[in-house]
What does this fold into?
Amino acid sequence: MPTNNRSMATSNASTHIARYFTLVGLLALVACGGGGGDNSPGGGSTAPVTISGKITFDRVPFKTAGNGLNLNAPIESPARLVVVEAVGTGESILSSTSTDTAGNYSLTVPGSTPVRIRAKAQMQKTGAAPTWNFRVLNNTNSDALYAIEGTTADSGTANSTRNLRAESGWNGSSYAATRAAAPFAILDTAYKARGLVLSAAADTAFPALDLYWSSSNKQSDSFCPDNGDILTSVYFAFASNDTDACTPAQPARSGIYILGDFANGGGDTDEFDQHVIAHEFGHYVEDNFSRADSIGGDHSLGDRLDLRVAFGEGWGDAFGGMVLNDPVYRDSQNGQGGETGFNMEADGIDGNEGWYSEASVGRILWDIFDDGTESGDTVSLGFAPIFAAITGAQKTTEALTSIYSFASALIAANSSAAAGIRALLTREKIASDNTFGVGETNFASKASLDPTYTTITLNGGSVPVCGTRDFGTYNKLGNRRFLRLDLATSRSVQISAQGPVTGTPTGTPAADPDIGLWRRGLIGSSMEEGTTEIFNTPVLAAGTYIIEVADYSHIAQSNLTTRRPDTCITVTVSGS
It folds into this structure.
C-alpha cells in the first residue's frame, strides 16, 4: 500500500493496434470501453442468425525445472466468463454475452449484416449475487480496456462459427507481435481466485476490481502508472485524496498493478506468474472482506517483519497457493531465463520462524487448508473455515491483525482442530494463540521487544518501551512498539511520548517519537518533529485501543543521513 514518510500508517502504486493472423483470420488487440449488453438482436432486415465460437488465450507455463517460463510451449486455454460482443457498423453493439467455463459463447445477431466479434479482458456479472466486475486495463494508455477482435464479415443468412485466440506474441526468441494473451491470462487467474472465494461464500458480491497491466510496466522507485512506473506487482487501496508521483500528480487509482516490461529478457513480466497475481488478489480479498492493518513496504522472505505485515504477506502467499492448489510459489525473472520462489510444504523456509515471519504465517495457513499429509500436519480444514475466520473475528478483533488474532479466531470456531492448529504454531516457533500474543516467548533473541503489547492505563503513570532497527527499518520487527489501552468509559485522552526518564530501561532516548492510535483501523496520528510528541484524541468510546509509538529514525522511508540504534520512549495516557 502507498506510504507517506510522516505517517504512522498507510492507505493499503496512443492507442496501439497490432494485427496478426490466426486460424480464424485477422485479429487485433484493441482498446475499448464499457461492457455488458442484453444479448438481443438489433437492426438488419433479414432473419436473425447465431454466431457462436470459442475464445481462447495462450497460457505460458513454467518449465519443469526451476528456470522460468517456457515461452515456446504455450497452452491454448479457454477465456472463461469474459464479455463477448457482436460489433456492427459505427461501433454499435448488436449483442453481448459472456463465455462459459469452457470459453464458449453464442450471440444472436441480425442476418446479412456486417459484424465482428470482440472479446474483452473483462468478467462482469450484475443482478443477483454473486456479482463481480473485473477488468484488465492499460495504465499507460488512458486506462483503456484490453480486448481482441476479429475482422468484420457479413453475418449471412445461416448460423456460423467464429473463434478468437489471444496469442502470446512470442516468436521463439523475442516478443515480435502484440502480447494479446497477457490480459486474458491475468483475468483467468482472477477467475480462479473468484472461484475459491465462492467455494466458501456462494453469494459474494465482489467490489469492482481493476487490474492494470502494460508491456511498459516496470520496477521503479516511484509510482507513476502513466509511465509504467509501478514499483512492482502490487495491490493498492488508495484513499480518495491520494495522488500518484506523476507530473502533474493525479488521483491515484486503486487496483492490482502487474509488471510487464520484458526489456529484451532483462526485465520482469508477471502476467503468466499466477502465484504473484493470486497473492495480490489475496490482498484485495483481505482489504475488502476482512481487515488489513498492514503498513505495507518492502519485504523479503527472510525478513523479520512487523506483525501486521507478516500476516498480510503470509496471507497473500497462502491464498495464492489455495487458489492454484499448489504450495510452490514461482515468480519468473528475466523473461524466460530464471525465477524465484519457495515451497510452503518445506520446513524452515526462511530460517527465521516466528510470528514476525511471512514464511511462517504462509506455511501455517497453507497447512490448515491442505490435506495434511506432510509430517506434523494433522489439520485439513479447507478454505471455508479460513474465510469465515478472516471475515469474522479477524475483521473485528480489538488487536492489530496478525497471526495471533487469526489463530485465536480459527481455534474458537474449530475446537476439534485446536490441537492441530497449536501444533502448527509451535512448529513455526510461535508460542501463543492469544489474540494479543500473551505468553509469547520468541522475540528473535531481542528481549527488549517482550511483550508484543505492553499494557498502559489511563492516569496510571509512565510506561517505557524500546524500539530497534536491528532487523531493518520502516516495517520490520521492533521498528514500532504497541501498547494496549482499555477505556471503561467514553472520553478523550492525551497521549504523550518522549525520551525515557530516570529509571526506565537503558537505551538511547528517542529524539523524535511519533504516535498512532488504532481501533479496528487507524483513528489518527501525531508526527511532529521534536523530542516530545503529544496527541490529543477525539472523544473515544469505551473499549480497547492500540497505541503505536516509534522513533522516526526507525520508520522513515527516506534516506536519512543517520539511523539511531535502539531507542526508548516513555508513554503516558492522561485524562480527567
